[in-house]
Design goal:
Length: 144
């Protein structure tokens, strides 16, 4: 979000399911964040299977959380994808590289804290022009 962010949640080992997504992301973060933002809040996720389970749909409905519609096979314009890329690049420059799962978790949490908020703000602020460019390109590649 603009001007601040939640802590990074790193899932422990095992498969992330709709239940884990609800219990570890939606309940503790999204529900509270939606409450703080108010009724204009719209959740931006994607078409990942675990985001689209009936359990997740029912939870979002029960909490009155609106979700942005993503058509099938649409380009992913979510700014978080650029943030994941920045985190990956930051991890790749570490010397030594993380060798264990715990080292990777620690590195991710440290790099998340080091990300410049201004970069996140710029990505969020670019959404309108990114969507316009995507529409102009009829869903084809854009310069973003």
């Amino acid at each position: 979000m603009l001007d601040c962010r939640t802590p990074l949640h790193v899932f422990d080992r095992a498969t992330v399911t709709g239940v884990r997504y609800r219990d570890e992301i939606l309940e503790p973060y999204v529900r509270l964040f939606r409450g703080a933002v108010g009724p204009e809040f719209i959740l931006m996720d994607d078409n990942a299977g675990l985001h689209r389970t009936l359990l997740v749909d029912e939870f979002l409905e029960s909490e009155d959380i609106r979700r942005m519609d993503w058509p099938a096979r649409s380009p992913d314009l979510n700014p978080i994808e650029h943030i994941w890329d920045a985190l990956g690049r930051a991890i790749a420059t570490r010397n030594p590289l993380p060798r264990t799962i715990q080292e990777m978790k620690t590195a991710l949490l440290n790099e998340w804290d080091q990300l410049q908020q201004e970069m996140i703000n710029c990505l969020i602020s670019s959404m309108k022009s990114r969507c316009k460019a995507c529409i102009s390109a009829r869903g084809d590649h854009t310069p973003y």
